[in-house]
Amino acid sequence: MMNYKPLGTSDLRISEVSFGCMSLGKDDGQNAQLLHTALDKGINLFDTADLYGQGQNELTVGKALVGRRDKVILATKVGNQWRKDGSGWDWNPSKSYILEAVEGSLRRLQTDYIDLYQLHGGTIDDPIDETIEAFEILREQGKIRHYGISSIRPNVIREYVSKSRIVSVMMQYSLLDRRPEEACLGLLQGHQISVLARGSLAQGLLAGKPVKPYLNYTADEVKRAADAVQSLADQKRRAAQVAMQYVLNHPAISTAVAGIRTEAQLEEALQATKLQPLARDEMQRLLQAILPNTYQEHR
Question: Which contiguous run of DSSP H or E holds residue 228?
């Protein structure tokens, strides 16, 4: 049975595991089948971005959800502007660009409104007031229902918490990236702002992929964390599900955004919601495996 949690202070409730669409392939038919299966099994939040595949990801998601739009909480992102020659993108959080870019996302997604429009990054040097103004205009126009940011930077997050009506922050969080625990999770929980956690498997390192250094952790430290996760896996739950349950254990987390490309990955993510939460002693084993990392910049 899927659990649902409030999306910030909004009237929306989102599934405890959500569908990260970035991993989808190029076959629209296969993608539609996967998205429909996820929806039928209780996932209702689908997250994409205009950046992914130069808009192709939004296109495939939009095609798949025609006729089922009212069952879906659709999230996309803005702020990375593709260069005309296609050689890359530039960061552009300006009001004028956001008001222009939303039209492309609406068209590709085949919808009149976006449930959650997110700033896809952000620095302390951005024109933050201008960015917020753009989101507020889009809310008034009914083109978006709510807005949030996708950022791991405490100094940026604090600005949006104090100045805006964001309902969510998407951030990377896992046993191998505990930086959000230091300054962000408590702050956001206190303001009833949902955290959408991505990267709970740490690039697969917590789910059996070959060990390598990650962030500021050495390969040996990564192995200790992976071994601790594996030690809690058994016939009922796999390492990936243990890693995801670690993330969902924190009360600030509303959903774990799982990057899904195959039926097997979908089933594994869904299974994590059906299992018993980690017991206190199991959490302690994970927490004691390695020292938590903290932010060195953007404090």
Answer: helix 219-232
pLDDT at 298: 62
**Total domain count for the chain?**
1
Q: Is 214 a catalytic residue?
A: no
Q: Which domain holds residue 190?
A: 4-202+250-278
Provide DSSP, 259-275. E--SHHHHHHHHHHTTS
At 8, the amino acid letter reads G
For 82-111, what is each residue's pLDDT tens digit?
888 878 888 999 999 999 999 999 999 999
The number of helices, as runs of H, and strands, as runs of E, in the chain is 11, 12
**Mean of pLDDT over the chain:** 93
pLDDT at res. 12:
96
As a whole number of angstroms, the distance between CA 42 and CA 48 comes to: 18
- Nearest alpha carbon to residue 230 among 202, 198, 201, 208: 208
Could you give the CA distance from residue 123 to residue 38 in angstroms, rounded to a whole number? 34
* Catalytic member of 52, 97, 117, 217: 52
**Domain contains 235:** no
> Residue 89: enclosing H or E segment and its boundaries?
strand 89-91
State percent of the chain over pLDDT 90: 79
**Alpha-carbon 226 to chain mean position:** 22
- CATH for 263: 3.20.20.100
Does residue 230 fall inside a structural domain? no
State pLDDT tens for residues 115-152: 999 998 889 999 999 999 999 999 999 999 999 999 88
Question: CA triplet 7, 12, 18: central angle to 5 degrees?
Answer: 60
In a domain, 179, yes or no: yes
- Asked whether residue 289 is domain-assigned, the answer is no
* Burial classification of residue 239, based on how many CB atoms lie within 10 Å of its CB (0-12 exposed, 13-18 middle, 19 or more buried): buried
In this prediction, the residues of the chain whose per-residue pLDDT falls under 50 are none
